[in-house]
Amino acid sequence: MPAAGQSLEPIAKKDLSNAKSPIWHTGTVLLTSIGLGFVFNRSSDPLLSCVGFSVLAYVLTNALIPTLGPSFIKVGFYGRDLGKNNKPLIPETMGAVCGLVYMSLMFLFIPFLFYKYLVTETSGAGNRDQTIDTAVHMIHTGRQLSMFPHSKLAEYLAALLSLFSILVLGVADDLFDIRWRNKLFMPVLAVIPLMVVYYVDFGVTDVVVPQFVWSLLHSGTEYSPPPTVNLGIYYYAYMLAVAIFCPNSINILAGINGLEVGQAVVVSVFLLLNDAIYILRGRISGSVHPAAEAHLLSTYFVLPLLGVSIALLKYNWYPARVFVGDTYCYFAGMVFAEVGILGHFAKTLLVFLIPQVINFIYSAPQLFKLIECPRHRLPKLNVETGLLESSRVEFKIAPTGLRKNFLSVLAKIKLVDLETDRAGKIKSCSNLTIINLVLTWTGPLREDKLAIVLLAIQAASCGAGLIARHTIAPIIFGRDNI
Amino acid sequence: MPAAGQSLEPIAKKDLSNAKSPIWHTGTVLLTSIGLGFVFNRSSDPLLSCVGFSVLAYVLTNALIPTLGPSFIKVGFYGRDLGKNNKPLIPETMGAVCGLVYMSLMFLFIPFLFYKYLVTETSGAGNRDQTIDTAVHMIHTGRQLSMFPHSKLAEYLAALLSLFSILVLGVADDLFDIRWRNKLFMPVLAVIPLMVVYYVDFGVTDVVVPQFVWSLLHSGTEYSPPPTVNLGIYYYAYMLAVAIFCPNSINILAGINGLEVGQAVVVSVFLLLNDAIYILRGRISGSVHPAAEAHLLSTYFVLPLLGVSIALLKYNWYPARVFVGDTYCYFAGMVFAEVGILGHFAKTLLVFLIPQVINFIYSAPQLFKLIECPRHRLPKLNVETGLLESSRVEFKIAPTGLRKNFLSVLAKIKLVDLETDRAGKIKSCSNLTIINLVLTWTGPLREDKLAIVLLAIQAASCGAGLIARHTIAPIIFGRDNI
Questions:
Q1: With bands split at pLDDT 50, 70 and 90, how would you rate the model's confidence at B30?
Q2: Which residue does chain B place closest to A135, by CA atoms?
Q3: At what angle do helices B290-316 and B259-285 cross, to 10 degrees?
Q4: E runs forming strands in A68-158
Q5: In B, which residues are within 8 Å of A168 by CB distance?
Q6: B482: closest chain A residue by CA
Q7: Which of B115, B171, B218, B258 allows an S-S link to B317, with CB 3.0 to 4.6 Å?
Q8: pLDDT exceeding 70 applies to what percent of chain B?
Q9: Quick one: pLDDT at residue A219?
Q10: Which residues of B touch A224 (CB under 8 A)?
């Protein structure tokens, strides 16, 4: 929201849209055709349909963002880009467009996902040679497609329901600016349908733990792989924690053009790579393994997210023409949480979110008010150079005792930039986010350079995580998931 | 939205809230306790839990509307009440609050709905004496509660998903003022999950028709009751039409304080009465009949709607302190459409919506621009008397030919108020809504009197429909549904 006194000069549609050259139009038509081709692929493979829907997700989002931008500004979804000299006014909450495109396509995907069952179940045993009696019976009881995987459908619907809830809560947050403490727990409500379905369909509350942990817990017992520990009800608490963590952690690692969407794109790509490893192994060996099924489901959810995210990134990249809003961060985070929970690979998911975990832990002293926390912790624009510098918290009362020691230790290992006066009193320090931390290491950077550095860190961390997951983890845990 | 130049003087919270006397507080505590008592009823009967959740739905909505009203105005959800002399500014889109309360409680209701299955399935066959091998197997395949009615869960989740979609589309409409022609078809998107589940779980596309219709279609064939006709794919078109009609028809019969919510309350009550007939017959005879199951599901959806609606009606009744918005009309209409579709009683549902059907048919000449249609067709306030008078369309070009004859016939049977000049040319006529029609019959009325008359018509029509459904219909259709 702009400060009082600043004028509101809504941007026109043309400022947002691409140059509508014939090439661009040709590209759209081409992409749409490819998308539709994949959707209605001849082999009726849901995976190919999913690829098609993801292409359409990109095309639709790409077309809708410039179309809807001005309307968003008109109804009050706008913000000023504080990282630019002229602080331009641009549409906010564009994550809502992504969310709606995503949800619509996921609805349309339902028949494609279950095509196999719908066709085999109805072509053979049609209604034609039924007697009137069975017809009457059917009216009152309904027929059921006996082979149809109702539990899979329930799972899929529950996941969509959770996503819709977080979408609504995200938009509500962008509209009403819900208090920090309240919105931290918004995902709890959204995740209820998912938990119920998890309880009903899986109920697996065992986790595989490293061998040495198992040995510690079962000293004296003969070892028998794999070493699992039944967490029981705590497993649900663990899933809840994942569902609360993912959306919020992406929302905290935010504030510069392209970072929110960029990190979601990187994480999506690595989740898809991880899924591909399982799916391809299954397809090559010709056997359908339950873990491969779970990773197929994960692909169905993550690939369309990648589609809408790439389109959004185009408009949100430096210099941003739209903002994504908390809506997008929550939505993307919730997709990750869901596939982690339903695919029973929440630990692997957390490996891909290591920068977010580190940022959360690093921010914790400020989030929980152990150290002063200003309203905004974004990097500060140096108007002279046009570069971003790490923002600082100026202490009204110099920290003493434990807090002083804590900051001094951090400063010594270069994890915070400390300013002290001659008497050794701490005057200010850089804000505790990894965005500011990177800036204290690299010095001032232009906004897009900073985003690239941060995304490179994300990619490197995810890459290392993926390799570790498939090389070191099987050794530590005694066996692999396959 | 207020006209330009009109000042925006947001109302304070106290204008919206009830007098916070000790009695009021006691009432809230009492109602909450009763609600919670029913939710956690000792017999674990989902029907009693549903009653409890509905009481809580009332309490929560009643508390949240005055709390959130000022925030709604702040973000731009407000409107001016044109039916009052001073045209006060009040919060709009309060249906969103109802919708969110409703959805949250329906989420929490899931475990209660399936409590029976969750408990029997897990108490006996616990995880304790499993071998590690089966534990490992479970981690990779998941267990399934074998008796658990996954199809019922999928049905329930699909219904909630459809409701969430319409809620989001409704809010989008209130925010962006979507064009009339586009929003007419919004329910199509929302109803997809429901149609898929219907196809998978029931697939019943037969409808019971009156005996004479059956005889016409099957002339020469021996008659064998009940007379059903398989509509096949047209049945899905029929369901789609119901899903489009219900939300829109409630949205069209609107514009005076208390009418939108009032009609939804009346329809809900009669749907519940109809459900009760089936459920009670089942409980008395001790047998669980599929039709009774469908009507139980209908109760689970309609009763909480009644809860939120009564609370909303309190604030929306003359003189209105809040507006309900298109959001509410769509949402309530969609709940009706869903129970009609899932319960396979869409025809009975339409019987309860006869005033809406008549209003739609009566409005059609204006809706489809055969007769001039002004931007607003609300009754007009006479500032002198404080009473509402029927609003009129002034013809720029006097209707001739067919349109003139049509209006003259309507005028003769007192279905429109016509103004002609000496030459017999039509100068103006009352707008074609049943709200204006009632006013041409009764003469000017105060807004609340008019609402009462219209709701009385609704109740009378529903009452007649309910009686006809259970007395005449079984004769015409050859048998009853029971």
A1: very high
A2: B206
A3: 150
A4: 78-80, 89-91
A5: 100, 164, 167-168
A6: A140
A7: B258
A8: 81
A9: 63
A10: 132
Contact A158 B158 (CB under 8 A): no
Q: Check B114 against A200: CB less than 8 A apart.
A: yes
Q: Return the domain boundaries, chain A.
A: 13-120+147-352+448-476, 353-445
On whether ipTM exceeds 0.85, the answer is: no
Kindly determine whether residue B103 and residue A165, on different chains, have CB atoms separated by under 8 Å: yes
Question: Which chain A residue lies closest to B196 (C-alpha atoms)?
Answer: A111
Other C-beta atoms lying within 10 Å of the C-beta of residue A136: 18
Summary mean pLDDT of chain A: 83
pLDDT of residue B215: 67
| pLDDT at residue A132 is higher than 50 | no
Relative to beta strand A206-208, strand A228-230 is antiparallel
A206 shares contact with chain B (CB less than 8 Å): yes
Q: Contact A56/A307 with Cβ under 8 angstroms? A: yes
Query: A-chain residues within 8 Å CB-CB of B159?
Result: none
**Assign residue A286 a region: left if phi > 0, alpha if psi is -120 to 50, beta otherwise?**
left
Q: Residue A421 contacts by C-beta under 8 Å, 6 or more apart in sequence?
A: A427
The answer to whether A420 contacts chain B (CB < 8 Å) is no
B46-52: list long-range contacts, CB under 8 Å, 24+ apart.
B46/B109, B46/B112, B46/B113, B46/B115, B46/B116, B46/B296, B46/B300, B47/B279, B47/B296, B47/B299, B47/B300, B49/B109, B49/B112, B49/B113, B50/B109, B50/B112, B50/B299, B50/B300, B50/B303, B50/B304, B51/B303
Residue type, A204: V
Alpha carbon distance B70, B74 (integer Å): 6
Q: Which residues pair with A333 in a beta bridge?
A: none
Q: Pick from B173, B463, B157, B204: which is nearest to B338 by CA?
A: B157
Among the residue ranges A269-283, B175-189, B371-385, B391-405, the one predicted with the least confidence is: B175-189
Q: What is the pLDDT of residues A240-263, one digit of tens each?
A: 999 999 999 999 899 899 999 999
Cβ atoms within 10 Å, residue B339: 25
**Chain A residues with CB inside 8 Å of B167's CB?**
168
CA separation for the pair B17, B35 (Å, rounded): 22
Best residue of A161, A338, A342 to probe chain B, by most B CBs closer than 10 Å = A161
Residue B269 touches chain A, beta carbons under 8 Å: no
Residue A17: pLDDT above 70? no
The answer for residues whose C-beta is within 8 angstroms of residue A278's C-beta and 6 or more apart is A289, A291, A292, A294, A295, A481, A482
- Highest mean pLDDT of the ranges A82-91, A263-272, A368-377, A465-474: A263-272
Helix (H) or strand (E) holding A426: strand A426-430
Q: Which of B93, B262, B357 is nearest to A176 (CA)?
A: B93
Selected residue of A200, A202, A289 to mutate for chain B interface (largest B Cβ count, 10 A): A200
pLDDT per residue over B180-237, tens digit each? 777 777 888 888 888 888 877 666 666 666 666 666 666 655 555 556 667 777 888 8
Cα Rg of chain A (Å, integer): 25
Q: Which amino acid is at A268?
A: S
Best-predicted range by mean pLDDT (A137-151, B76-90, B432-446): B432-446
The continuous run of DSSP H or E covering B389 comes out as strand B387-389
Quote the DSSP letter at residue B353: T
pLDDT, average across residues A439-460: 95
Tokens of B137: 């197997």
The answer, yes or no, to whether residue B302 has pLDDT greater than 80, is: yes
Q: Residues of B with CB below 8 A from A100's CB?
A: 168, 172
- B471 and chain A: CB distance < 8 Å anywhere? no
Q: What is the pLDDT of residues A197-255, one digit of tens each?
A: 887 766 666 666 666 666 666 665 555 555 666 777 888 888 899 999 999 999 989 98
Q: Which residue in the set A164, A175, A344 is minimally distant from B161, CB to CB?
A: A164
Choice between A17 and B429, residue whose per-residue pLDDT is larger: B429
